[in-house]
Amino acid sequence: MARFGLILLFAAALGYAAASPVDEQQVLNNPSSLAPSKDWDWTDCGSDTHIVRINSIEVSPDPPKRGEDLTITVKGDAKDQVKDGAYADVTVKVGVIKLLQKEFDVCEEAEKANASIRCPVEKGHHEVTQTVALPKEIPPAQFKVNIRGYTEEDEDLLCMDLMMDFRPKRGSFLQW
Length: 176
Fold this sequence. Notes:
Blueprint: H1 7-16, E1 24-28, E2 40-44, E3 52-62, E4 69-78, E5 87-94, E6 97-105, H2 106-112, E7 124-133, E8 142-150, E9 156-165
């Protein structure tokens, strides 16, 4: 899929909201739920009917920092080919407030971002790394991103939920 595992959509959604302090790297291997005490988290909410399953997501720096580049590496498997016409519904929220609700053409977005993977994406294991610039104006809030991907025939492609928390941490002073 254009930007396998919808990494491009993840990056686009982060462009609407993300950042924070500290400098290390962490890999989360398919956590079962989004952890409210973490700076970021994700879950693959897909089922056996979904064509793409995400195995891991790695970000650097971890946690992401406002005004800096964020490198995202997604590893996953496609059990079938992903063709032109695949799309994703992306919702970004702060609490119950929707900041963004948009449908993206996955293949078109991958092409615009000069992605390493383009449609059609063949069946098999894939790893995609993408770097995006995070705006320094990202407010100190917790953002939740829901991505629901579909094939050109409206079959389940991918289901992923992400959380990024840019609120100042206890013991930090004027971090944003």
